[in-house]
Design brief:
The protein has about 450 residues and is an alpha/beta fold. It is built from 15 helices and 23 strands. The mean pLDDT is about 90.
Amino acid sequence: MSTVFNFTFVPWFRSVAPYIHKFRNQTFVVGITGEAIAAGKLTSIAQDLAMIQAMGVRIVLVHGFRPQVNEQLLAKGHAPQYSHGIRITDSVALDCAQEAAGQLRYEIEAAFSQGLPNTPMAGATVRVLSGNFVTARPVGIVDGVDFKHSGLVRKVDVNAIRQTLDMDAMVLLSPFGFSPTGEAFNLNMEEVATSVAIELKADKLIFMTEVPGIHQHPLEPAGDDNPIDTELPLATAQSLLAQLPAPQQPTDTAFYLQHCVKACKAGVERSHILPFAVDGALLLEIYVHDGIGTMVIDEKLEELREATADDVAGIVQLIEPFENDGTLVKRSRTEIERDITNYTLIEHDGVIFGCAALYPYPKEKTAEMAAVTVSPKSQGTGDGEKLLKRIEQRARNQGLESLFVLTTRTMHWFIKRGFQPVDPNWLPESRKAKYNWDRKSQVLVKKL
């Protein structure tokens, strides 16, 4: 194994660890379109889901079958019929849907049963269990259109699904529901996944789709200057939906977005739209900071707050590389733990991406801003500015009149934000006694 691989794999794996810890025992509802299966992506998606489950995530998998049903209908000389973006399910379409669901369930179970050596499934044991977990009702007649055997979710048997998940099994749902009289209804995969996520109070709802996500300028053409918006606040998503026409097909911008918004409004914190065309999209979205698709959230994941004792390990991990290259003065874990209430940090999705500490000198009405650190992954995003503003506010609240820093490499960043160079003799006497004259740190002061 090459040295280059070692030096790339180890830091990457360590960076993934916080997400593995965070998502353990959480529940994800994953909706896979029939188009993904038709495109030959089932094996790779199953491998990724098996790995995610092995890391402690509880998974409910809902599959679609839109192209498979259409293919069977055409083979029987029967044209697919849609209205209001919903399939009109006559008796022929219902038979085709039942046949397609049975075939896809067989293929999905087979995909999770693989265990070939030298594959991600080697040694995996994934139990996939299905059942009549969803009760349905008919769509009925809408605007004069009779949807016949097309249905809507009436009820989800949450307790049965949870009991299945408690057995460390993966729950597999087809887009079918049954009425109390035993009548079968063809359902919409997206609605089933959304309803199950809401009723389960799932931590994530994820759609593996034929679209890459929502572009930053959704009403403009896609292009290099119009990339995917990786984080869409709920309020923004709702505003966007109000501007978009009612979706008629899955490639319409509002098609998956409407379900993500519905889920978030009902308490599912995060809903995702991912492209199945990208290999490993699930892993990239869940275990990489920026993700790959669009995540709709009911609040900003970034949090600026004061540190607690539980944050010591995260702060140590964040500042250690900067201490090793000489950017920061080394601080022991004991010192950080002792001074933890002095620290302010920026946390994103449970991972610390920046920190700074405030050490006041009340007699001189000043304070030192120390251990200012921003992860390379988020540098240039304004995190340093946010930390500075919070530290300034904390200093003002203590009645202090100035803020100073000691730095050897980042003086220009501070000067651009109102700090002025001063002689080290300016420092408070107790701080000057600890000044390292060999290090020759530059002292910068900002009046508050």
